[in-house]
From TrEMBL:
Key words of the record: DNA-binding, Methyltransferase, Restriction system, S-adenosyl-L-methionine, Transferase
The species this protein was found in: Arcobacter ellisii
Positions of the DNA methylase adenine-specific domain: 166-368
The protein's name in its UniProt record: site-specific DNA-methyltransferase (adenine-specific)
Major enzyme class: transferase
Family the UniProt entry places it in: Belongs to the N(4)/N(6)-methyltransferase family.
GO molecular function terms listed in the Swiss-Prot or TrEMBL record: DNA binding; N-methyltransferase activity; site-specific DNA-methyltransferase (adenine-specific) activity
Classification via PANTHER family: SLR6095 PROTEIN, TYPE I RESTRICTION ENZYME MJAVIII METHYLASE SUBUNIT
A biological process from GO: methylation
EC number: 2.1.1.72
Manganese as UniProt keyword: no
Transmembrane regions listed in the UniProt entry: none
Catalytic activity: a 2'-deoxyadenosine in DNA + S-adenosyl-L-methionine = an N(6)-methyl-2'-deoxyadenosine in DNA + S-adenosyl-L-homocysteine + H(+)
Amino acid sequence: MEILKLLENLENHSLETIYVLKAWKKLSDEKKIDKKYSFENFYNQEINVENLLNIFNNLSKTVKLFNIYKFNPEIYNKKDLIEMLNIVKKETLPNVNEIFYNSKTDGSYVSDQIAELGIKLLDNNFEELYVPFTHSFSYANFTNKKIYADFYMTKAAIIAELINILENKDIEFHMTNALKEPTFIDKNASHLLRKFDCVLSFPPIRVIEELDISKDIFDRFHFPKSKVLDIAHFEHVIAQTKNKALISLPVGFTYRSNNEENFRKKLIEENLLETIIILPRNILLGTQTEMTFFIINKNKLDNKIYFLNLNNDSFLIKSGKKTIFKDINEICDVYNNRKEISNISTIVEKEQIINNNYSLAIDRYIQDPIFENIQNKLEGFELIALEKIADVRRSQLLKDEEKGINVYEISPSDFISSNFTLECGKIKKIDKNIKKLELYKLEPYDVLLSTKGTIGGVAIIGEIKEPMVASQAIQVIRIKDTNNKKNKAITLYMFLKSDLGQSILSSLVFGTVMPQISTDEIKQLNIPILSKEQEFKLIENFELENRLNEEINEINKKIKLIHRNFLN
């Protein structure tokens, strides 16, 4: 414990130096270096900083660690060096990865549990493992197989060599940016990438950078529009996988539209995706972001995808202030046997994912039994996609210009419990953005749906006296049938407010930090086609609800009056 506290308080260059000295001592003890350059030989003479520099320079010709690590004699005096040498000689040092990569020192660290789970999900039956974009080495604690790894930082290269020497691992590390300059090449064909039996990757999250794919001779990248490198990281992993790969990505990758949707389509249509595993949020990785394991299998025998939600109390346990997995072997047993457990895991046909616009959001496939019962009720109706009967779009921001005409902005907090919404409190001045206002201003009988932050709030706009727009948290739904717009809008409003409508909306939500529903999901929302009698009944219910709410308001006024007039 004392040595751990001492090391944690050291500056990074001193910490590196102590571990390099420890590696030097181990190589010396094992007689793997010339005696004249050995630790003991140096220690038993008058300590001289310049002499150590000369020894390391000589060792750099034969030992990779000393070629990478650059000892700077100017930052150490004789006293400092003697103190470090004594620590190395007398103390047992903590695990290399543990001291250099942890939640205190590195925001992108990978916990031991996540690393162990990743290795075990790959079955650990591989002969070799490739780990691209590596920024910690916790996975090395859980396998003795040959590891190939790459990253562009010198720190990672030094730590890989320290692990090789101090922990007897076999890591071949290349210091490179694998997206721009991959270095693990097919030994028989320099224009081809080497393919590895298994690949494990925890790439940096949502890195934004221009990637010039025209220089890639390996034909890896097919989604050039995105500046976020998540897809590029995934494409590189696939390009170097022979059999199986596991890559961790933000949970948003399972449901976001545009490029990411097109990439998911590629995974499904080429039958590469085997499993989606949702990880517990904010507890196992050095990130606030929700993470997902994508497991690729290039030798799949069916067209099905397995979904497993580990963000469930049955897998978790409290350990002090942290939440950890109870039993990683139990998780692997569930995965290996593709067990289907209510509210936790399920096997999904490829066609079902296609019908869901290639969404891999786990809530689409693992549903509460109550919701399944409600879904069954929909089977009694003929259904139609909302976009066929209405225009749907998310409102856009109109900045307050502090002069011009008054425009009212409605937000979900302005929605009333029944009847038409006629006014709201927030006023903006619009002057130069009149054209944008004309595009986004609300019309009578627009149906508003809150789909960001507060989910499922519904309003219907009445007659408008002043220009009104919706906030960015709102989807505006405008009925196309201008001849029967009012009645159609009321029936849609009543459906979305119903238990049935609300349950369907809740199944489309993604994200926990900022829950939301995408515009595409709302457009594809299946709406019951109602008979004239059914529409008339909903309009009657709309009017009845309004009358009941008016009565409730009058009762509440009387109750307030009682409270206000205490003993008259």
